């Protein structure tokens, strides 16, 4: 079974063919309904929020009393998140934003991503994969905004997610010690595309670069003024308060990339080793699980 908020082998978005805190600059109310849902598997999230005036008529997500503590299951999924197509709400820089949840759509994408990750293994019967693909096509055709606005990563934050953010966009969340990063989609897209160019010029393996290209492809479908948020969420519980306070993962990724641009490969390796070491134990839980 796939555990869902949305669940997949690593990030729960797939192409069917294969929240008051004080940031370094600016202010916003960091609390959002997205933080209220408990998780069966500790996960981090990358969310895109649309400006509310461009998001359509979504109801703001609110959990019915007690509903978030009930786990439900069927043949392929275990989930606690309500399956209503509403939206998480947050405020940033004086503007209201909504993140449509589309839970059923994300469940289906997770199922197809899981199947595509192990081709030929038939972990999901082919007939059910085909049925899921047909349902996913119908859901996407039902609304011009029907798509995944949320990527989910169990047990860790993929290091490539940090490439979207400037170190100054780091926020320490109030609702339990945690970390979030926020920027516009246009800024994040520019940075991830820069990362692709740097790694390509440095001769990195295409498999590594393709993961960044996939992140870029996902972001390109959103308006540039939308908000992209990296939320440690449940994954923060894997670290002590001291470790979280000292966590500068985005700064270390940025330093590594900058060193590559200057052809300072030893310096780049030192910065990358620092962030990779911080996340190694958490990432290993993904494979153990």
Helix and strand arrangement:
Layout: E1 2-4, E2 43-51, E3 72-73, E4 77-79, E5 87-92, E6 95-100, H1 103-117, H2 126-141, E7 150-154, E8 170-173, E9 178-184, H3 185-201, H4 206-220, E10 227-231, H5 241-246, H6 249-261, H7 265-288
Parallel strand pairs: 1-4
Antiparallel strand pairs: 2-6, 2-7, 2-10, 3-4, 5-6, 8-9, 9-10
Order of helical and strand elements: EEEEEEHHEEEHHEHHH
Shape: globular
Average pLDDT works out at: 81
Low-confidence stretches: 1-33, 35-39
Q: How many separate domains make up the residues?
A: 1
Q: Percent of residues in beta strands? A: 15-25%
Helix content: 25-40%
Number of helices: 7
CA radius of gyration is 19 Å
Distance between the termini: 12 Å
Number of strands: 10
Quaternary assembly: single chain
What kind of sheet is the major sheet?
A: 7 strands, antiparallel
From the helix content, strand content and strand pairing, which structural class follows?
A: alpha+beta
Task: Explain how this protein is built.
With 289 residues, the protein is α+β, with helices and mostly antiparallel strands. It has one domain (2-191, 223-239, 280-288). The protein contains seven helices and ten strands. It has helices at 103-117, 126-141, 185-201, 206-220, 241-246, 249-261, 265-288, and strands spanning 2-4, 43-51, 72-73, 77-79, 87-92, 95-100, 150-154, 170-173, 178-184, 227-231. Strands 2, 5, 6, 7, 8, 9 and 10 form a seven-stranded antiparallel β-sheet that branches. It has a three-stranded mixed β-sheet with strand order 1-4-3, covered by helices on one side. The longest helix is centred in the C-terminal third of the chain and has 24 residues, at 265-288. The two termini are 12 Å apart.
């Amino acid at each position: 079974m796939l555990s869902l908020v949305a669940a997949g082998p690593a990030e729960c978005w797939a192409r069917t063919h294969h929240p008051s805190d004080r940031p370094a600059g600016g202010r916003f109310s960091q609390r959002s309904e997205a933080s209220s849902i408990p998780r069966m598997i500790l996960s981090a999230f990358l969310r895109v929020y649309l400006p509310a005036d461009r998001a359509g008529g979504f109801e703001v997500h609110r959990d019915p009393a007690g509903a978030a503590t009930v786990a439900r299951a069927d043949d392929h999924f275990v989930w606690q998140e309500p399956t209503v197509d509403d939206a998480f709400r947050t405020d940033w820089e004086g503007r209201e934003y909504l993140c449509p949840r589309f839970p059923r759509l994300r469940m289906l994408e997770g199922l197809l991503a899981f199947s595509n990750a192990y081709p030929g293994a038939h972990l999901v019967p082919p007939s059910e994969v085909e049925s899921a693909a047909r349902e996913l096509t119908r859901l996407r055709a039902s609304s011009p905004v029907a798509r995944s606005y949320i990527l989910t990563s169990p047990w860790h934050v993929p290091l490539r997610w940090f490439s979207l953010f400037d170190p100054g966009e780091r926020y320490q969340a109030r609702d339990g010690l945690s970390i979030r990063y926020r920027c516009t989609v246009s800024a994040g897209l520019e940075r991830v595309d820069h990362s692709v160019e740097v790694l390509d010029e440095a001769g990195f393996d295409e498999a590594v670069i393709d993961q960044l290209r996939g992140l870029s492809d996902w972001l390109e479908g959103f308006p540039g003024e939308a908000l992209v948020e990296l939320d440690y969420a449940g994954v923060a519980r894997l670290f002590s308060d001291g470790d979280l306070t000292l966590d500068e993962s985005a700064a270390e990724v940025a330093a590594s990339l900058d060193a590559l641009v200057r052809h300072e490969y030893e310096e780049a390796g030192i910065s990358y080793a620092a962030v990779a070491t911080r996340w190694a134990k958490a990432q290993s839980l993904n494979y153990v699980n």
